[in-house]
């Protein structure tokens, strides 16, 4: 089962924003979000997602959940769901960016740039505490690619225990032990192959290299949930839609083959 979260932050996206293969068994989250600030609304949405992930993991005969959404923040809900199911997962985070800003260090204010740092415990009072997320230790996070870092992110990572690896360097022996949540921001793929992302970063790995690395992580047999973020603008034409659909089809097929 694929859990589709058609939101970018707390904004509901059109159904066409995430072009999944027609044969995919899908459960779409369409939450009624409360009035309040963006954090209140995000926590309400992510609580629903976390419960779905936990329920899926609590069904022995079910495949591991695959969550597909419009941004990286939903990964916090996927990890929380694994924790609610009694697991203590580490995270393997594929992304063109670091996602390790705080509200103080971010120059843009874009909340997606905080996504991994929130999972590591930043701004607990806004995110982890109300959601019930147990923040991960830095040693439980592997950041893959992250070719586009702001100075504050580079400084944080240089002094942290977060492990950074290139896509082609990633091997199973380099991963933390125990269960894993695999997070893939599709913008890790070079923009020449996947145009239209919200924050394009050139000179990235090919789609094939990313898929091969993803399969190496899945081949460990320790991935309990896959989280796929699609932070892209509306497709400009059929070519962009087809490119996105092909990538999602291959990612879902890889996840299901490893289940």
TrEMBL record:
SUPFAM superfamilies: Arginase/deacetylase (SSF52768). The keyword Metal-binding applies. InterPro entries: Ureohydrolase, Ureohydrolase_dom_sf. PROSITE patterns: ARGINASE_2 (PS51409). The keyword Membrane does not apply. Keywords: Hydrolase, Manganese, Metal-binding. It holds the Pfam family Arginase. Belongs to the arginase family. This is Arginase. It comes from Amycolatopsis bullii.
């Amino acid at each position: 089962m694929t859990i589709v979260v058609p939101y970018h932050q707390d904004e509901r996206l059109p159904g066409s924003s995430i072009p999944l293969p027609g044969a995919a068994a899908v459960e779409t989250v369409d939450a009624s979000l409360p009035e309040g600030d963006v954090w209140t609304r995000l926590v309400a949405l992510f609580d629903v997602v976390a419960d779905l992930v936990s329920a899926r993991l609590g069904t022995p005969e079910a495949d591991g959940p695959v969550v597909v959404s419009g941004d990286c923040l939903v990964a916090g809900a996927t990890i929380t769901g694994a924790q609610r199911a009694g697991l203590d997962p580490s995270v393997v985070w594929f992304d063109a960016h670091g996602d390790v800003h705080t509200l103080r260090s971010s120059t843009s204010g874009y909340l997606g740039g905080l996504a991994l740092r929130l999972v590591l415990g930043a701004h607990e009072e806004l995110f982890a505490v109300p959601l019930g997320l147990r923040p991960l230790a830095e040693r439980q996070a592997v950041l893959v690619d992250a070719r586009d870092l702001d100075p504050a992110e580079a400084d944080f990572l240089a002094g942290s225990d977060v492990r950074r690896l290139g896509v082609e360097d990633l091997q199973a022996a380099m991963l933390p032990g125990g269960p894993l949540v695999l997070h893939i921001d599709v913008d890790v793929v070079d923009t020449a192959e996947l145009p239209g992302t919200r924050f394009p970063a050139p000179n990235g790995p090919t789609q094939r290299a990313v898929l091969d690395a993803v399969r190496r992580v899945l081949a460990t047999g320790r991935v309990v949930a896959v989280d796929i973020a699609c932070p892209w603008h509306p497709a400009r034409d059929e070519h962009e839609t087809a490119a996105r659909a092909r990538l999602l089809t291959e990612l879902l097929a890889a996840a299901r083959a490893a289940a």
